[in-house]
């Protein structure tokens, strides 16, 4: 795939209507198009263990997406099926479900509950001791991440209201499908899809094991009746919904007992997330607080049902026409990657230039080991010595993040070398990026591709430069190409 055939030769403007996907997305506040949504979800099926092992690269720790990592009792992996569909694969601990038939029957029942507000279950696997669930993949993290561990901006008020409404829609649909029990509803169970819309994980519709605990969170957040009897009832789900409302209101994980004390003491403002100041009307906040209080009643019979949640939250939505990704400040038209990414690919995808720099330093020139050794076969002349010194000074400047000097040294080196170096072009491309010269960076990344046509790094750097130029669709294509060549390399090494 040489440079002449690069996708960057067919760039189009990000304003081109053909690259816009928003018109295909149902209105954020609209409850229609449910049939169309369900049609896009694959039919539930049983997967073979080998297929899921391959999809997760042998259940590699690099593919774990559980926020607790390997420490989670049931680990969730990101995986890619043979048809390039990204999925989430939940792997239960050994002996969680001894009866394979019971597990498959339960999973198939959950798989029938389809809705646009759910992360739909699309399959399972029960081979030997392994018990796995397969669901749609959500690329934009959990509510927990956006509320408690945000990087760029706190979740805005209007998005918090939308989360409350969409999750109420999901619970109402589950009720209608006679799936009234949802285990351990919390901020980790709410995920955001490629458009930034919140969805409720279907994993919560199954227990963690045949006879296992229904709640894994701190006892302070567990419904009182579960503590008394060890049983979950439909009203328990409403209690847990109330704890999620507290998370949304406060931006913190506040024990319900403490929150109720604040509410009874009329200290509602003490409960509210300070980062939301000026974003909401006091009446709306008060109504949300009152709804949380109703959900958290100690007696199950005093709590409302899902229909009540919908009618209570619906009027609080004031910006239904604004897309979720806009409210959250996510990149426009975030596309799910069809291929797994290496650490360098991941760093480029999230525009983490500091991580990219560290990886480049560790990698060095190892992808060009054959070409690098050509110097030893040349006649030892002053010109060769000058070239080695120039490379050395360029690498020192690059290491020390003196990118302006690195550009000067690498530019001089490019003029001196009889055989162009892909790594030098890549390092100069990165230096241009750090210097705010994205067009020069793109040109160098393309030159690196000419030197090594199937070098993933060259494609990743083109993706970085294209993102800086606002060409997100082409950047995504380059990330996909880089990942595809990486997978090809990996498979060739294994064989």
TrEMBL record:
Signal peptide, first to last residue: none
Membrane topology: Lipid-anchor
Low complexity: bias regions: 16-33
GO biological process, one term: brassinosteroid mediated signaling pathway
A molecular-function term among this protein's GO annotations: ATP binding
Coiled-coil region(s): none
Pfam family, one: PK_Tyr_Ser-Thr
EC top class, as a word: transferase
Region (Disordered): 1-43
Swiss-Prot/TrEMBL catalytic activity: L-seryl-[protein] + ATP = O-phospho-L-seryl-[protein] + ADP + H(+); L-threonyl-[protein] + ATP = O-phospho-L-threonyl-[protein] + ADP + H(+)
Cell compartment(s), UniProt: Cell membrane
Keywords from the named record: ATP-binding, Brassinosteroid signaling pathway, Cell membrane, Kinase, Lipoprotein, Membrane, Myristate, Nucleotide-binding, Serine/threonine-protein kinase, Transferase
Domain of life: Eukaryota
Domain Protein kinase stretches: 62-328
GO cellular component: plasma membrane
Listed EC numbers: 2.7.11.1
Family: Belongs to the protein kinase superfamily. Ser/Thr protein kinase family.
UniProt-recorded name of the protein: non-specific serine/threonine protein kinase
């Amino acid at each position: 795939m040489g440079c002449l055939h690069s996708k960057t030769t067919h760039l189009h403007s990000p304003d081109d209507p053909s690259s816009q996907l928003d018109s295909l997305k149902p209105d954020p506040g609209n409850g229609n198009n449910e049939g169309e949504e369900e049609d896009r979800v694959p039919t539930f099926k049983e997967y073979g263990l080998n297929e899921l092992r391959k999809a997760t690269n042998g259940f590699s720790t690099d593919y774990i997406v559980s926020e607790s990592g390997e420490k989670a009792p049931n680990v969730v992996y990101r995986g890619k099926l043979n048809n390039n569909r990204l999925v989430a694969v939940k792997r239960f601990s050994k002996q969680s479900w001894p009866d394979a038939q019971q597990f498959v029957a339960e999973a198939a029942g959950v798989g029938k509950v389809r809705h646009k507000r759910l992360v739909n279950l699309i399959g399972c696997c029960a081979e030997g001791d392994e018990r796995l669930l397969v669901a749609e993949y959500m690329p934009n993290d959990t509510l927990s991440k956006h509320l408690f561990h945000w990087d760029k901006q706190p979740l805005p008020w209007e998005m918090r209201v939308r989360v409350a409404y969409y999750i109420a829609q999901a619970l109402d649909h589950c009720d209608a499908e006679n799936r009234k029990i949802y285990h351990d509803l919390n901020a980790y169970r709410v995920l955001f899809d490629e458009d930034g819309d919140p969805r409720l994980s279907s994993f919560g519709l199954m227990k963690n094991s045949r006879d296992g605990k229904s709640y894994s969170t701190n006892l302070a957040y567990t419904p009182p009746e579960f503590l008394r009897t060890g049983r979950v009832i439909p009203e328990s789900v409403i209690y847990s919904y109330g704890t999620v409302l507290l998370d949304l209101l406060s931006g913190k994980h506040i024990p319900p007992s403490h929150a109720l004390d604040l509410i009874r003491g009329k200290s509602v403002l003490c409960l509210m997330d300070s980062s939301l100041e000026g974003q909401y009307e006091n009446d709306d906040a008060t109504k949300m607080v009152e709804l949380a209080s109703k959900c958290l009643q100690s007696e199950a019979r005093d709590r409302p049902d899902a229909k009540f949640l919908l009618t209570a939250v619906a009027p609080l939505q004031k910006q239904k026409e604004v897309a979720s990704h806009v409210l959250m400040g996510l990149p426009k038209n975030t596309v799910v990657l069809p291929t797994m990414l290496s650490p360098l690919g991941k760093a480029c995808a999230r525009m983490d230039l500091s991580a990219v720099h560290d990886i480049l330093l560790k990698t060095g020139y190892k992808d060009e080991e054959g070409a690098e050794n050509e110097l030893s076969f040349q006649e030892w002349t002053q010109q060769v010595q000058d070239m080695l010194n120039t490379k050395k000074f360029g690498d020192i400047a690059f290491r020390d993040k003196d990118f302006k000097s690195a550009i000067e040294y690498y530019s001089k080196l490019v003029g001196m070398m009889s055989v162009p170096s892909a790594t030098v072009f890549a390092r100069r491309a990165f230096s241009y990026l750090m210097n705010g010269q994205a067009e020069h960076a793109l040109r160098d990344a393309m030159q690196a591709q000419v030197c090594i046509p199937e070098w993933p790094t060259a494609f990743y750097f083109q993706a970085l430069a294209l993102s800086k130029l606002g060409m997100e669709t082409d950047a995504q294509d380059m990330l996909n190409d880089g990942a595809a060549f990486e997978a090809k390399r990996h498979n060739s090494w294994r064989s």
